[in-house]
TrEMBL record:
Organism: Flexivirga oryzae
Entry's Gene Ontology cellular component terms: plasma membrane
Secretion signal, residue range per the UniProt entry: none
Name of this chain's protein: MFS family permease
Upper taxonomic lineage: Bacteria, Bacillati, Actinomycetota, Actinomycetes, Micrococcales
Entry's Gene Ontology molecular function annotations: transmembrane transporter activity
Amino acid sequence: MPTVQDPADPPIPIRSHPVLARRAALRFVLLIGVVSAFSDMTHEGARSITSPFLGSLGASGLVVSVVAGGGELLGYGLRWFAGRAADRTGRYWAIAFFGYTLQMAVVPLLAVSGNWPVAAALIVTERVGRAIRIPTRDAMTAHAAHRLGGGWAFGVREALDAGGAMVGPLVVSLVLWLHGSDRSAFAWLGIPAALTLLSLVFTWRQFPNPADLESEAPAPPTDGAPRPPAFWLYLAAMGLIAVGYADWPLIALHFSEERMVGSTVAPVLYAVAMAAEAVAALVLGKAFDRVGLRSVLVVTVLTAAYAPLVFLGSLPLAVIGILAWGLGMAAQESIIKAVLTTIVPADRRASAFGLFDTGFGVAWFAGSILLGVLYDTSLVALAVISALVQLAALPLLVLTRRRLAAAGNG
């Protein structure tokens, strides 16, 4: 008598056939990566000109700073709430759709904003939309990690993500060169914004339940169980790295004030950093799947050198520093998140990603203030403190690795 499959069960071929399952997982990662590429093209393109746009509308330097810093703080601070909502309701796609739609809708609306308060509200709203959709996107990507390896799954997606982040500002530069208008640039960014939503719909229709990509059936819910000590150790380590990591605007300001490059070359250097991030994400992803957390240790040592190279070196050394900075950015969005898939259970990943991002973002915000003060005081102090704070994460990473090894996840 043939076995009747329960309609509630995932499709049998996906979990029982390793080759088909791996192909499906790779296809999902590529599709969600395309969504990320179009979305990054949109919001990174917009962010490359939002500060001067606010200034052209009459916003003061203080307003520009508060909008940028406050938007980033909200963009990280709300992620825990979004992730927790996703895990509690199980409506990952619905929350992702809401976040993506909110974020993509406000960018072209900047083209018709008539004053700086309206523009500022739209800029902050874009960050809120991003905060809502990122934990669910990461949690769904993690379902493919069991088939592809966590490093490769997050690495491939981040490579596509970084590609979009590289193209977006270049497209904006081209539009500005052709039309000379920030508003025209925001309007043109409506095209990748629409493509983001269209590709999101296509991905959802192809994979309505990404949990089917897991190699095993979902474990019983663990809601209410405390997070393992390794999670908090890891978050503390990454918080130190965040404190020591400079925002690109500070690096660009340094290049401008030191007259190392012209204003037209700075976006090209950012594109170089994004290209390095895209390539590094793939390499780091493979490395993580082979050696695990040791890859994060190595990257931490290498990227700690970015600040001395960028802020104390000549232009050739600064370019090397930019590559190191791009390497670190790749790690933050690929292998650093892949580690979390080995620490937390599947049914709590969205809230774990959200909590991790919130803690990381608060540390980054505090570090931005610290490095900004040091920049006005002493470049040597900035470079030394940035490097030392990042290297201080190494003992915590070693302890995390030992905890995971003891739990059988190292």
